[in-house]
Amino acid sequence: MIHAVIFDLDGVIVDTAHYHFVAWQRLANELGITFTEKENERLKGVSRMHSLEIILEIGGVVLSEAKKEELATRKNSWFVEYIEAIRPEEIFKGVKQMLISLREKGFKVALASSSKNAETVLRLLEIKGLFDTVVDGTMIIKSKPDPEIFLLAANKIGVDPSECVVFEDAEAGVEAALAAGMKCVGVGSADQLGKAHSIVKTTADFPIDQLNLL
Ligand code: B16
Ligand code: MG
What we know:
43% of the residues lie in helices and 12% in strands. The chain has 214 residues and is α/β, with parallel strands linked by helices. The protein has a six-stranded parallel β-sheet with strand order 3-2-1-4-5-6. α8 links the parallel β4 and β5 (183-187). α3 packs across α4. Residues 8, 10-12, 44-45, 169-170, 173 line the site of magnesium ion.
């Protein structure tokens, strides 16, 4: 029996993935690295520093740890600037109602985002109160595809991993959910998310009365 639903944030609840891309591309441009939207797929769900390392690898650039810290901080300041304008209307269609319905039906609802900015985004979207627990990038050591973030979320709501369904838009996130022993609904295309138990175009396309059929 499924007792809990765990949501990723970027790309599942709101399109902050786009703001991440714009900020990373700005940094890549400064470094003389061509960074495309296709390559950006590799960054989804992974930590800030790991994202920077992927971009440097694409450009064949090697930098000191101190320089990498400086660049990651610069990218984050742009990202924070971009997301200041986020409004509740930007929540993907049907998702807010989905969160409300899940809790009405007795499911625990958790948020598990690799982002250290997740609290800010939830505040701007005015949906923090719809989650039983929020786990973000400030609370974990290993980011997705490691299962740590989902196992921590399950632990906090007191539900066994086998009774959780994860909604994820990133390949690394699907891998993390499966490694945690959870069911996973991929949000996006089968090319990247083929390992998920089910794939939908957008989060609210998944009928919640089918959670136990996954
Ligand atoms: P930050 P999610 C992830 O959020 C993003 O998908 C990923 O692209 C980003 O690098 C990561 O958060 C860290 O974000 O720099 O804000 O700490 O998809 O797990 O909600
Ligand atoms: Mg995501």
